[in-house]
């Protein structure tokens, strides 16, 4: 803006008044946009969630009393997501950032450099499972698998696919929100109890419904279902590695196809946010069919689903695909 020269006193008074109002408005805007870790002054609690399941828990617990912002837009695959400069800058305004260390490297880096004291790694609230790449570290592996093992580390980050883990994660989020915003402790506690009740019912449904399945081996597009398999008595075989964007080697495809035939597996599972081509290739080679098993790393744009409804759809897919009675 250029400089204006004021020619008389009355004009100067009006200009000063306008300038004062502008400053006041800007100051008010900054107060709302930069909340501190306290609501005693009536400031908004802003929670940044790295991806959908964490967003789901934050909204379930915080309701309309907090502002939840997802760093992953609907329809985007989060593993290799790159944050925009605007998103990185916005993290400075957060009261709490929720993430799972090792799942989204760009988020890990931004949090470590920007707001390590205002972040909650939900992987620390559960018992982590060793990643498939790390478990087979001594075996001959593809270059892609070696890269994934280096990026994702020793542990599988897909912790949310076991409802019992989601309960532990909900408790961790609730505790942190209460420490930030003690005035709403009763509200957060009640909401945590409600969502944990839903998650416990979901866990019980999976436990009972998947107790008697003829097929205990599950073949998936990528290694996202280790926690679900571990919780309900299955063995996971991911065609790709921890990232759905990695390409399996020809040797891996042959290995999976031979196992599918040997075990009498009838269903190869693919997911919603990535191409089903790899799963379809194995199915075509073995005579199996394909079905969706959603790792719930995100929802499609415009979807009305929730974590609970997608997990229930996964349950039905497993009942059919694993021949459960």
- Determine and state the CATH class of the largest domain: Alpha Beta
Percent range for β-strand residues: 5-15%
Rg measurement, Å: 24 Å
CATH fold-level label of the largest domain: Rossmann fold
Q: At CATH's second level, what is the architecture of the largest domain?
A: 3-Layer(aba) Sandwich
Q: Going across the biggest sheet, name each strand in turn.
A: 2-1-3-4
Count of beta strands: 8
The total domain count is: 2
Helix content: 40-55%
Q: What value does the average pLDDT take? A: 86
Describe the structure.
The longest helix has 25 residues, at 9-33. The chain has 325 residues and is an alpha/beta fold. α9 links the parallel β5 and β6 (235-238). The chain is built from twelve helices and eight strands. The strands form two sheets. It has a four-stranded parallel β-sheet with strand order 2-1-3-4, sandwiched between helices. A four-stranded parallel β-sheet has the order 6-5-7-8, with helices on both faces. The protein has two domains: 45-126 and 162-204, 3-Layer(aba) Sandwich (Rossmann fold); 211-321, 3-Layer(aba) Sandwich (Rossmann fold).
Question: Which features characterize this protein?
Answer:
single chain; 325 residues; alpha/beta; Rossmann fold; 2 domains; four-stranded parallel sheet; disordered N terminus
The gist of it:
By secondary structure, the protein is α/β, with parallel strands linked by helices. It has twelve helices and eight strands.
Secondary structure layout plus pairing:
Elements: H1 9-33, E1 45-49, H2 52-62, E2 66-70, H3 85-90, E3 96-99, H4 105-114, E4 119-121, H5 132-135, H6 143-152, H7 163-180, H8 185-209, E5 217-220, H9 226-232, E6 235-238, H10 250-263, E7 267-270, H11 277-286, E8 289-292, H12 307-321
Parallel strand pairs: 1-2, 1-3, 3-4, 5-6, 5-7, 7-8
Helix pairs in contact: 2-7, 2-8, 7-8, 8-12, 10-11
């Amino acid at each position: 803006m250029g400089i204006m020269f004021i020619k008389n006193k009355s004009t100067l008074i009006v200009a000063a008044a306008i300038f004062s109002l502008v400053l006041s408005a800007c100051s008010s805007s900054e107060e709302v946009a930069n909340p501190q870790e306290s609501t005693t002054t009536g400031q908004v609690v802003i929670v940044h969630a790295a991806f959908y399941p964490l967003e789901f828990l934050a909204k379930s617990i915080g309701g309309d009393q907090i502002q939840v912002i997802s760093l992953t837009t609907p329809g985007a695959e989060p593993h290799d997501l790159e944050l925009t400069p605007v998103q990185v800058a916005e993290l400075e305004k957060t009261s709490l950032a929720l993430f799972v260390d090792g799942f989204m490297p760009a988020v890990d880096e931004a949090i470590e450099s920007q707001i390590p004291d205002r972040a909650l790694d939900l992987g620390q609230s559960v018992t982590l499972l060793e990643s498939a790449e790390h478990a087979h570290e001594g075996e001959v592996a593809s270059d892609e698998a070696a890269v994934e093992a280096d990026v994702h580390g020793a542990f599988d980050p897909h912790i949310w696919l076991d409802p019992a883990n989601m309960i532990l994660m909900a408790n961790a989020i609730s505790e942190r929100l209460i420490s930030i915003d003690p005035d709403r402790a009763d509200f957060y506690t009640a909401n945590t109890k409600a969502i944990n009740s839903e998650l416990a019912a979901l866990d019980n449904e999976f436990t009972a419904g998947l107790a008697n399945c003829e097929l205990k081996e599950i073949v998936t597009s990528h290694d996202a279902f280790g926690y679900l398999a571990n919780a309900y008595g299955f063995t996971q075989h991911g065609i790709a590695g921890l990232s759905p964007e990695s390409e399996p080697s020809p040797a891996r495809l042959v290995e999976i196809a031979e196992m599918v035939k040997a075990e009498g597996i009838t269903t190869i599972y693919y997911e919603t946010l990535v191409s089903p081509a790899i799963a379809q290739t194995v199915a075509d080679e073995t005579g199996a069919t394909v079905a969706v098993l959603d790792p719930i790393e995100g929802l499609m744009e415009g979807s009305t689903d929730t974590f609970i409804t997608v997990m229930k759809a996964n349950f039905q897919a497993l009942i059919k695909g694993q021949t459960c009675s």
